[in-house]
Amino acid sequence: MSKTKRLCMRIGFITLALMLTWSRGNAQEKVTISYSSIDAPNANWYIAQEKGLYQKYGVDAESIFIPSSTTNVTSLVAGSVKIGNGTGGAIANAAVGGANLVAVGSFINTLPYELIVHESIKSPQGLKGKSLGISRVGSSSDVAARVLLKALGLEPDKDVAILQVGGSPERAAAFRTGRIAGFPSPPGTIHLAKGMPHRVLISMADLQKRFPFPYVCATTTKSYLASNRDTVRRIMMALIDATHFFKARKEESKKIFAKYSRQNNEAYLESAYEDITKLFERVPLVTREGMEIQIKEALARKPSVTLKVEDVVDEAIVVELEKDGFIDRIYKQ
Fold first, then answer.
1. What is the pLDDT of residues 95-123, one digit of tens each?
2. Which residue has the higher pLDDT, 104 or 140?
């Protein structure tokens, strides 16, 4: 073989090796991500998908909608989803049951709910013997219903029945048809009741202190976090970027929100946007007080189990992103 041919082959092998190295270094990680609601508090999850932000940070994401945080948590435990949206209550209940879950951040740390009831119900006593609609047992709407009822001096399940109905549109429909007397509502949802006479009996804003609750938590299993920490970091970067997008680009965010919620009611879109943009965390750390409350509630059902906040929360990635200036850079765009 001539020197020229040997040189060409050598160059070819080097080029191929470089191409393979480049390909491995730039290949995007494939991962299934889920969000639990089409309401505005979850908008950053589907904005990240819609605007290609997962890909921007090197993650080839399949983003899917799995109604209710409790079902999302079940999917995480089963391994069909790698990162999903779980509430503090759903995480704590699953952990008490033996699930190896961890929240790596929380984008909203309170329950943005109000209790909508028929106009004829003018006092808490008017709710006695009637039903409230929630999405699913253990969900944030379930927690909100119980907190608001107790604030009114009513005993959940005993004084007022709590029924699983579905998401916000389904609750509004059940309310309109008279199946339920009321429902805990995220901001703006009442506009979907289409003229049904109603009143707000109580709101979380009426409580003396904002109820601390890890509401929109980026959740994964401890094993996935341990073996795929860089992927989780990149996903958190995309979600933080999407949160900033929601805050900074109102009209485009409302259009995306309308697309995913399948609602074009301007009053609903505007009200939900204005309320939620104030609640999105710039630095998505988990409220420790809120998680402690949820752990206490979960342990009341299984007193033999030991569980601490540190067992279900790992905020190291968010702390790193804040410390290295990533979050500041995003919000200066």
1. 999 999 999 999 999 988 889 999 999 99
2. 104
Is residue 111 within 8 A of residue 216, CB to CB? The reply is no
Please name the amino acid found at residue 256.
I
Instruction: Classify strands 101-106 and 131-134 as parallel, antiparallel or unpaired.
Output: unpaired
- β-bridge pairing 114-118 and 101-106: unpaired
Q: 111 in helix, strand or coil?
A: coil
Point out which residues pair with 182 in neighbouring strands: 117, 132
Q: Determine phi and psi for 33, rounding to 5 degrees.
A: -120, 140
For the chain, the maximum distance between any two Cα atoms, rounded to a whole number of angstroms, is: 98
Report which residue type is found at 141: S
Number of neighbouring beta carbons within 10 Å of residue 123: 10
The answer to whether residues 54 and 235 touch, using CB atoms and an 8 Å cutoff, is: yes
CA distance 286 to 281: 10
CA 114 to chain CA centroid, Å, is: 18
Cβ atoms of residues 41 and 47 within 8 Å = no
**Mean pLDDT over the full length of the chain:** 88
Q: Which of 254, 248, 280 is nearest to 267 (CA)?
A: 254
The token duo for 320 is 């790193």
Percentage with pLDDT > 90 across the chain: 66
* 159: pLDDT strictly greater than 90: yes
What tokens does 311 get? Answer: 């067992």
